[in-house]
């Protein structure tokens, strides 16, 4: 399982605050990390008012770049139980 900060969308040169994108990982880069790490489950955390309503687009970007595992959104007080096989 990989838990990843998902605070921003793709910058695409349109950001009002480029530094915000330097300090946070864009979904396309999250996809590469999750794919290369070969994790079974990716948990998107630190969802912001920018990313929370666009989770479908975030997931589509990540899946479109080759991540084949399960993608879940973190929520306050949500518990993820890891079994022996996870």
List the helices and strands and how they pair.
Layout: E1 2-5, H1 18-23, H2 27-37, E2 41-45, H3 55-64, E3 70-73
Parallel strand pairs: 1-2, 2-3
Query: Terminal Cα separation, in Å?
Result: 8 Å
Helix fraction, binned, reads: 25-40%
Strand order of the largest sheet: 1-2-3
Number of helices: 3
Q: Quickly count the domains.
A: 1
State the secondary-structure class.
alpha/beta
**Could you give the count of β-strands?**
3
Radius of gyration: 13 Å
The low-pLDDT segments are none
Order of helices and strands: EHHEHE
What amount of the residues lies in strands?
A: 15-25%
What is the overall shape?
Answer: globular
How would you describe this structure to a colleague?
- This protein is α/β, with parallel strands linked by helices.
- The protein has one domain.
- It has 3 helices and 3 strands.
- Strands 1-2-3 form a 3-stranded parallel beta sheet, with no helix packed on it.
- Helix 2 packs across helix 3.
- The protein is globular, with a radius of gyration of 13 Å.
- The N and C termini lie close together (8 Å).
List keywords for this structure.
86 residues; alpha/beta; 3-stranded parallel beta sheet; 3 strands
Summary of the model, kept short:
This protein is an alpha/beta fold and 86 residues long. The protein is built from 3 helices and 3 strands. It has one domain.
